[in-house]
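Supplementary notes (optional reading)

For those who missed the lab, this is the record we used. Protein: 6-phosphofructokinase. Length: 323 residues.
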Amino acid sequence: MRRIGVLTSGGDAPGMNACIRAVVRTALAHDHVVLGIRHGYAGLIAGDAVPLDRTAIRNTIHQGGTILETSRSLEFSTEEGRLRAAAAIERLELDGLVLIGGEGTFHGASLLAAEADTAALVGVPASIDNDVYGTDYCIGFDTAANCAVEAIDRIRDTARSHERLFFIEVMGRTAGFLALESGIAGGAEELVIPEEELSIARISERIREGFTIGKKSAIVVVTEGKTPGISFQIAREVSERLNFESRVVVLGHLQRGGPPTLRDRVLGSLFGVAAVEALLEGRSGCMVGEVGGDLLCTPLEKTWQKKKPLNEHLLWIFQFLSE
Ligand code: F6P
């Protein structure tokens, strides 16, 4: 191996820069050349690459976003686009490529692997949704979850002062990891997660029960699901049933930015080193991850084909801690 490429793709996630930095430092320590591919798969198709040396990654570990920039490339979802990407990999003379991203990135990488057989491909999980199979945590989740908890704390002050019901919508798409963990940490009364069927009656009943034991306000954490903004409809229906005023706060992209937490910087660093080591060991077509405290590699196909389940124990403790 002589030349290693690195790119970030899909939604940016705090900690991606720590990972890029770790990839560069590890590769340079083994005397390899590192190229940063800009704008994710769109940049790969265009062959948009810049050399990454020690100077390029200096003073970046504390920055959110990604210094390489990112994209969700429609062209890459076509065979023609992927063939152009494979040609660029050859032109750039890459022996290995580290792909930092989420499910969509690895779906694309699995397809690319069939066309780009000149370079080894190794993935690194980074997604605030934390929905990638093959790792307990993805880079970015911890920062986003802490952002959501801070928002819940702030809103609780108003909820308590005005005796109100609040619906706080968090990201996560079709996975409830952000809602579950921020809901536990923020002391929410109820959750709406895609893993469970939505029941306005159940949500209303749980809030009513809380009021009967003396609660005067309540917070419901809602996963955006496939329809961001869904919490407005849920709030209206629950409010009508309970005849109780409510407010909605959609956290949106606030959760994606900001300086990475300690956990995301360490995870990004660990995964960056592990990805280069995996390449040096001759691995390809896999994603590095951490399961039960162990670093391991999972075949790329599994990371997006298998649905990562929520932690059953956390779901269970939420039920009675939220009463
Ligand atoms: O996948 C990360 C994520 O932040 C999701 O939680 C959210 O649904 C989506 O990206 C938003 O994507 P975009 O920034 O492209 O609107």
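If you only remember one thing from this example: The chain has a mean pLDDT of 97.
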